[in-house]
Every structure is written in structure tokens, then in C-alpha cells.
Design brief:
The protein is built from three helices and no strands. The chain is mainly alpha-helical and 80 residues long. Helix 2 (51-62) crosses helix 3. The longest helix has 12 residues, at 51-62.
């Protein structure tokens, strides 16, 4: 869609809400009862170049500030 090859497309809500795409067009949310829930997760790799940075990033994402960023971009979060 962004390249002009199509007039409409399906993208993640998080992308539609991103500042870089705000002026690109319009979006509507597909009703949640129209598809099965999408479950996403994260992993820390044993061979990470900087394990401490990876653990700090994980702590941020799972903490209040990170959860707020996820909510801002349309993610439904499980209770802690």
C-alpha cells in the first residue's frame, strides 16, 4: 500500500498508530470476534552479545513504562 502498488491492505494496528504512518491514510480496526486471538511473546537468547542489555530491555518492556508503550500502540496486555 505504501509503495502505491495497492489501494488497501492489512497491517498491524501498532504500525497504523506509528507516527511515521499517521499522515499516510486511514485505518479501521477489524472486530476482535472476526479472528482468533493473536498471541505474541519474546525470548532472551543465550548467545546475546550483551545479556545485561537484553535483560534490561525485557525488564523495561514488562514494566509500567513499557506496558504503556505497548498499550499506546494497540496491544492488549494480560494482567500482571
Amino acid at each position: 500500500v505504501q509503495s502505491g502498488a495497492a489501494e488497501a491492505g492489512v497491517i498491524a494496528l501498532s504500525l497504523a498508530l506509528a507516527p511515521a504512518l499517521q499522515k499516510e491514510g486511514r485505518f479501521w480496526t477489524v472486530p476482535q470476534d472476526a479472528y482468533p486471538p493473536l498471541e505474541q511473546g519474546g525470548v532472551l537468547l543465550k548467545w546475546a552479545r550483551d545479556p545485561a542489555a537484553a535483560q534490561a530491555f525485557r525488564a523495561f518492556v514488562l514494566g509500567p513504562a513499557g506496558r504503556e508503550v505497548l498499550r499506546k500502540y494497540g496491544f492488549d496486555l494480560p494482567a500482571q
